[in-house]
Design brief:
31% helix, 9 helices, alpha/beta, two-stranded antiparallel ribbon
């Protein structure tokens, strides 16, 4: 499916973080609202949400009460051992029937090599061994070893977990910092960029795609989303100076768009049409108010203009993002003896 300007339909995601809310039940309504808008995925536990609830635990509770929307917890690489991340996110992929992802904020104090190891160890498309359809081994792939030694942790031994439904859950990396861009280009399915204008975003997106190609990837397997906080106010109004189609502004709340749903729809359309981004990840400043105005206002306008889907054509997060299920590099080909 393509938009009127010839590009593929844009991608939209939203954060559902709520300050001070640790009860999983509080996140059901926002997730279902985002799903009614056909958003690609929701995130929980982003870099500005700490302290907060157990993102993996909350999203596991949301899986049975949602049907299509992707569920992406933020996982802190410096605090979480790689094998545990792999198993927990794979479990989320199973219980959501292929709708899981996980978000890394890029290299942490452990260093870029550790962050890359966690991305390589994730899921199963590159490292898993089981049959995604049955949960067992399919006879064409057997256990293989995962051997990695970094400055802060090591992963050694056979990987025996069955592959999750998507092969490996979708990997989201905040690529705003220059040190994270190499990791994102090599391993991310979705890269987030916090930038103030379409020209900067376009240059960084082109650089990420070029680096992906140089690493041996098809650059079309990487989605680049602009990331910003949105304040849609209590009523429709024009975007404040500096918040229009050109880009958001740096404020005390971070990179922020402040205006109405119509102005935000225009900003998203301009950036997407100019090939600055493939879509946006949006964080509501006031979670309930702004998410409702985002879905019922901005998203509805983009759907009316033919820039965003009105329904989910598939059931997995990879299908929402138009990304193929990755083949395992450990699979045995038909010609092998």
């Amino acid at each position: 499916m393509t938009a009127p300007h010839g590009r593929g339909l844009l991608h939209l995601a939203a954060a559902v973080d709520q300050r001070g809310s640790f009860d999983a039940a509080a996140y059901v309504e926002p997730a279902q609202l985002a799903e009614r808008g056909a958003l690609d995925f929701v995130t929980l536990g982003g870099p500005f949400a700490s302290p907060g609830p157990d993102a993996l635990g909350v999203l596991a509770r949301l899986a049975p009460v949602t049907r299509r929307i992707g569920l992406v917890p933020a996982v802190s690489g410096i605090r979480t051992e790689a094998r545990r991340v792999q198993e927990a996110v794979a479990t989320l992929d199973w219980i959501s029937r292929g709708r899981a992802g996980w978000q890394s904020d890029g290299p942490t104090a452990g260093g870029e090599d550790e962050d890359e190891a966690r991305l390589r160890a994730d899921g199963g498309g590159d490292t898993g061994t089981g049959d995604g359809a049955t949960g067992g081994f399919n006879g064409r792939e057997g256990p293989h070893r995962v051997d990695y030694r970094g400055s802060t942790f090591s992963v050694t031994g056979p990987s025996i977990e069955p592959k999750p439904p998507q092969g490996h859950p979708v990997r989201v990396v905040d690529a705003t910092g220059s040190s994270a861009r190499g990791t994102a280009a090599r391993h991310a399915d979705v890269a987030l960029l916090r930038v103030t204008g379409p020209a900067q975003a376009r240059a960084l997106r082109a650089g990420l795609r070029r680096a992906a190609a140089e690493s041996g990837r098809d650059p079309d397997t990487l989605r680049v989303l602009g990331a910003l906080t949105v304040d849609l106010g209590d009523g429709e109004r024009a975007a404040e100076p500096g918040h229009g189609g050109g880009g958001p502004r740096h404020t005390a709340q971070g990179l922020l768009y402040r205006g109405g749903p119509v102005g935000l729809a225009q900003l998203i359309a301009v950036w997407h049409e100019s090939e600055a981004v493939d879509g946006f990840h949006l964080t509501p400043l006031e979670p309930r108010r702004d998410l409702e105005r985002l879905v019922n206002g901005t998203v509805a306008l983009l759907q009316h203009r033919g820039l965003f889907r009105t329904f989910y054509p598939g059931s997995t997060l990879r299908e929402h993002l138009r990304l193929a299920r990755p083949a395992s590099r450990y699979a045995v080909t038909g010609g092998a003896s």
